[in-house]
């Protein structure tokens, strides 16, 4: 299956390559995800919310439970784990506390035993689980070190698939004081990275519209404030 031309971008004085085409990846029954693990990123300070976002309730469930259930819907070989949640004793602790979500990604990759790792932030409850499965299948096919969706031109690096080989370079980036996720993971990748536009993919693969009745541009809305929570709660009833 072809992927079209590989392009280069300029980012903070470094060149990176990514796959830009929009091939279709059928969601067949019994997909083999034996080489993948799933992680919820839940280590944020929740400063704008005023309390731990992971514990906030939507539709009678916490944001953390909603995120875990989305990853549980994938046929992964092991239960999904949580990185950085202050409310869970079994959460994977940051190796470099206070360095933002990149530290949570580092801790998860360090704890992982499999090459591909799918990440979901705790505050993205409208994202359909089927999209995560689709994205993981894409990462398996492209063999990209970094697989990141982009919506309205904005990369979503906390909802992504990262190869475990990124661990060492990410640790080096943290030690160097570079905590920006997108810049760090792109710098760490030694192979072409896959940053794909969700709108382009959906236009080429109508099956994606069936993932959720909520428009794709809303899938990536974050719960950062009480106002965000109110708006998302109305849409959550439509999202599997």
Task: Walk me through the structure.
Residues 1-30 have low confidence and may be disordered. Strands 3, 6, 7, 8, 9, 10 and 11 form a seven-stranded mixed β-sheet that branches. The chain has a two-stranded antiparallel sheet with strand order 1-2. The chain has eight helices and eleven strands. The protein is α/β, with parallel strands linked by helices. The protein has a single domain (31-236), classed as Spore Coat Polysaccharide Biosynthesis Protein SpsA, Chain A, CATH 3.90.550.10. The protein has helices at 63-72, 101-111, 129-142, 167-175, 181-188, 198-204, 216-219, 226-236, and strands at residues 6-11, 14-19, 36-41, 57-58, 61-62, 81-83, 116-121, 146-151, 154-155, 160-163, 194-197. Helix 2 (101-111) runs antiparallel to helix 4.
Count of individual domains: 1
Work out the helix count. 8
Net shape: globular
* Major sheet size, sense and barrel closure: 7 strands, mixed
Q: Return Rg in Å.
A: 17 Å
Helix-strand sequence:
EEEEEHEHEHEEEHHEHHH
CATH class: Alpha Beta
Question: Uncertain regions: pLDDT < 50 for 5+ in a row?
Answer: 1-30
Name of the CATH homologous superfamily: Spore Coat Polysaccharide Biosynthesis Protein SpsA, Chain A
CATH architecture: Alpha-Beta Complex
* Alpha-beta content class: alpha/beta
Portion in beta strands: 15-25%
């Amino acid at each position: 299956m072809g992927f079209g031309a590989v392009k280069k971008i300029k980012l903070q004085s470094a060149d990176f390559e990514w796959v830009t085409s929009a091939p279709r990846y059928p969601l067949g029954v019994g997909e083999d995800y034996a080489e993948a693990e799933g992680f919820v990123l839940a280590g944020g300070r929740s400063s704008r919310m005023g309390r731990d976002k992971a514990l906030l309730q939507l539709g009678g469930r916490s944001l953390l439970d909603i995120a875990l259930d989305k990853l549980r819907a994938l046929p992964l070989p092991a239960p999904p784990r949580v990185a950085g949640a202050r409310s869970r004793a079994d959460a994977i602790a940051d190796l470099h506390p206070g360095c933002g979500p990149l530290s949570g990604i580092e801790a998860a990759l360090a704890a992982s035993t499999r090459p591909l790792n799918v990440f979901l932030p705790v505050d993205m409850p409208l994202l359909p689980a089927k999209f995560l499965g689709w994205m993981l299948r894409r990462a398996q096919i492209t063999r990209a070190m970094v697989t990141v969706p982009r919506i309205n031109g904005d990369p979503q690096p906390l909802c992504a698939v990262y190869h475990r080989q990124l661990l060492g370079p990410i640790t080096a980036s943290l030690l160097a004081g570079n905590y920006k996720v997108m810049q760090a993971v792109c710098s760490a990748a030694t192979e072409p990275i896959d940053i794909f536009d969700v709108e382009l993919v959906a236009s080429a693969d109508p099956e994606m519209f069936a993932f959720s009745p909520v428009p794709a541009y809303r899938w990536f809305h974050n719960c950062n404030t009480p106002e965000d929570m109110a708006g998302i709660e109305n849409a959550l009833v439509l999202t599997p």
